[in-house]
């Protein structure tokens, strides 16, 4: 099947799914229930809600998307690769997850995926217990490396780090799925694996539990817009106001976290810890949230410090060059093709009453 056919099918799926939901809502009367809301599905690139990935659950808990007219369902997936395939297949309108799988697919011409908001620059790291003797990737020959899930959006970074150290990722090390957070911490502490590769939000949870790690990563990664909200050009073209609204919920979640990491942790504990992403004490949750906020603020500052979710064009271009070097794509796409054609999108996503949001966060009615 050629690329035009794939894109036509994606457009047809988007129009059919969203128009059907809209018609169902329009025919339901004038109430204020979910039948009057447009149905939206977000494919989440984690198998469970995670404490520090606030953009996936705060807009649900605070009903920000609902207030804008959207009944949003966030569907966990095994990883960002899987979530991206859900988006390409037309079974979701958005992805919250790692950007690499979607942007690589877009640059290859497999799908018209676009980056709506970047909520974190690349914070992937390979970590080993501090004082355990492993401080460089080349020391992992013949060792076991824990990963949170199979097929994660960060796999390309781990492979590059190992290859640059002279290791074959498939032959010289054994990669073992150990899960997130407390499960990964236990695997490292017990010696079941000698190192662990994951993203900052996950590692922050472990540090909050008392972990002390040596970090290994490539400095160039820190420029890449690695995590955020993605959609397709077809969705942008047909429903630009919906894209703005979903992006606004994501931006609000960043501002809410900044205003009160304590309240964000309380919201997670009240409604989402049972999904499988919990396991910390309340005090540890707050510590993890504050560590995560540091990462988010670094990303905000790298884009000028004004708008949560803004995308640096040079970072996006550098990320494509990296993916090309890793064999993920042949020719980088023009950066403009990877971004929605919505004038002032980042500013529109940040167009909300920040003082009121801060007051809401500090009042903390979870």
Automatic annotation (TrEMBL):
Segments forming domain SsuA/THI5-like: 57-263
PROSITE patterns: PROKAR_LIPOPROTEIN
Signal peptide: 1-24
Keywords: Signal
Keyword Signal: yes
Protein name: NitT/TauT family transport system substrate-binding protein
Source lineage: Bacteria, Bacillati, Actinomycetota, Actinomycetes, Streptosporangiales
